Amino acid sequence: MVFVGNDIVHLNDPKNLRVEISNRYLNKSFTPAEQETILKHKKPSLELWRHWACKEAAYKILMKMGATTSFVPKSIEVQPYESRAELSMTANYQGINLYFVSEATQDYVFTYGSNLKDAVPLIHSKVGKGFESEESALVRATLFQLISENCPEYSTLEVVKNSNNIPLLFNNGARLPVDISLTHDYGFVAATYMMNSNLSATLNS
């Protein structure tokens, strides 16, 4: 079964800019191997947020897989993935490997991925920007626009969260075989989806 997850970080938001790369902060959220990678990078702050976004995106996938119900950053170990151009990073949680693309601009870091390596190139994503107070509506509008560009037959879309707070996609009241992930951070939003005809109906509960 294929699941997707994503996360976006607004690099220039004052709250994120105040995060200091100190031993205390690194020890709280990152493993020794991750800390070494971050500190050796030519842009340590950027690499920190790339790692963090990957952890957040991985957690969303793990939740859908039923592998965990709580976000413990150090339990998800991130590594750069250099051997294939279309992948940026991998994450491991108790032997479960996840695969991600991480994109960085001067304004944000955006990471998306899947539990299956070969599925990553099939993922559709779109980033948007608006007012922080409108993020929830904007991220849904971004998702609907992204899907309509590829699947115009879906004309009445709705996002509904299940009891585990996992977003599900419906069209005219019917659950679609599409896995989605939504994220926002201080005005930036991003939507990710992938068609998944084998998506389990158990997530409807």
What topology emerges from the helices and strands here?
Elements: E1 4-10, H1 14-17, H2 23-29, H3 32-40, H4 44-65, E2 77-80, E3 89-93, E4 96-104, E5 108-114, E6 124-129, H5 135-150, E7 157-161, E8 167-171, E9 174-175, E10 178-185, E11 188-195
Antiparallel strand pairs: 1-5, 2-3, 3-4, 4-5, 6-11, 7-8, 8-9, 10-11
Describe the model.
There is one protein chain. The chain is α+β, with helices and mostly antiparallel strands. It is 28% helix and 32% strand. The strands form 3 sheets. It has a 5-stranded antiparallel β-sheet. A 3-stranded antiparallel β-sheet has the order 6-11-10, covered by helices on one side. Helix 3 (32-40) runs antiparallel to helix 4 (44-65). The longest helix has 22 residues, at 44-65. The protein is globular and about 50 Å long. 37% of the residues are buried.
